[in-house]
Amino acid sequence: MRWKIKTTPENERVEHLMECLGVSKVVAVLLVQRGISTFEEAKAFFRPNWEQLHDPFLMQDMAKAVGRVQLAINQKEPIMVYGDYDVDGTTSVSMLTHFLRSQNVDATPYIPDRYAEGYGLSIQGIDAAHKQNIRCMIALDCGIKAIEQIAYAKSLGIDVIVCDHHTPGKILPEAFAVLDPKRSVCKYPYKELCGCGVGFKLIQGIIAQQGGGKNLLIEYLDFVAVAIAADIVPITNENRALAFLGLQRLNENARPGLKALMRDKPSEQLISDVVFGIAPRINAAGRMKHGLYAVELMLAPTEDLAQHMAKEIEIFNTSRRTVEQEITQEALTQIEENNEHNRVTTVVYASHWHKGVIGIVASRLIETYYRPTLVFTRASEGVLAASARSVHGFDVYKAIEACSAHIIQFGGHKYAAGVTLKENEYEAFKKAFDAEVKKTIMPEQKERVLDVDAALSFDAISPKLLRLLKQMEPFGPENRSPVFFAKGITDRGSAKLIGNDKTHLKARLSQGKSNAIDAIGFGLGSSIHLLKSGSPLQVAFALEENTWQGNVSLQLRIKDIQ
Questions:
Q1: What average pLDDT does the chain have?
Q2: The CATH number of 2-47+450-561 is which of 2.30.110.10, 1.10.8.100, 2.40.50.460, 3.40.50.11740?
Q3: pTM of structure
């Protein structure tokens, strides 16, 4: 693993923050690395608040969208709320359905079937709206590339409002309104909202036009926080404020459906708890049964009903893990049997693989073969579908786009994408994709990277430092939990392997004459020989709290040992 240690910022800015904030040098360095160099910027960073949310009407087409929804509210016109089957889509649909019903609108939530309809706005969904005499559809977390589908809806007299955050193509759909901060003509000051975030801005616009304030918006923030965490969008600027306020809502007054998904709930939910706890369970419904089940859970009015539904979702999640492990093993075997372990890409296919888990399998394969990866399965007769995942710094979306001659449809972003193609194009695509990656991937993108923020001596580690670091939460893309490194580290003779499979490492580390600190390294069991050697080592680590039998102590989370 290659350590990518961030450049130490210029001393003048660091010293200024140290003086005006009264913080240590390492904290000031971390802040400057995050683009913060003044007292006011630091105040905004440490205290996210409502004032950091932008005016929704700065978004292109917002006035049109608000006007159309308000017309439906006034005329008690039914609305179909359509969204994708992942966490961003299902939280968006749940949120907007809940809001519209509070406005006495007959809102119909619709999630496409992952297998029968696939990703995005579907003809089947539009037909369902038409049969119910629905004349207004709101498409969340999808729609920006649904040119033909929206043209079809328009021909049936259905007004479609798109609330998307994906990069638009060269042609926009002829929707009634297109809300997407990534539109080239959109002057909205923050471009990194998730789909649920765009839906929230629509609600904010409607409430503002009605003369309401933030008190009416608070109850929707838990949906937004879950979507931000799950969709891996940057937790900066407005997303940071939304995530911070949403986590407050989740911790203080979670709705029954989300509360039921907080299994083994810690005292306080963090972004990481959402990513590894709530999000996989919501996703499991769409992967193993139907995404609408997750929506019904999140809209559950009582805790008893929510708990009952959550137990079923837990069964889906357990099944998902089993299927995922089986497919991952089959894919690894396929790579070995085809002698493809030295390629620059991984592209694998089996017709029976479960479409709901191929994205997770792609991520698992990268853990073994660190390279851009696509996992294909059969979507329908003669048509294959794939999930793509990428490695640090490499834009898999652009690489797929370069192979578009072999593709029916594709969408996504830099690190994750979806592809459909005709079965007879599979081999040609595989060859073209491998050639494109070989041509464009940089040497440093072929090896695992650990981003390291700064050096930190053990003498500087304290509970006070940890308290300050915790105030930098919520952590996520572009505001990662800080990773430090220290040299001259030795084990106090306590290094041992732990866990059922003995793959994890537990030790007590010291630097020179400093006090020893407990440390744990998940998946680092193979490095125990380094600690046992007695030689001074270089260790990369994060600081965290360890709670055991009611006692709270500071410990190091080891990231790598060299």
A1: 93
A2: 2.40.50.460
A3: 0.89
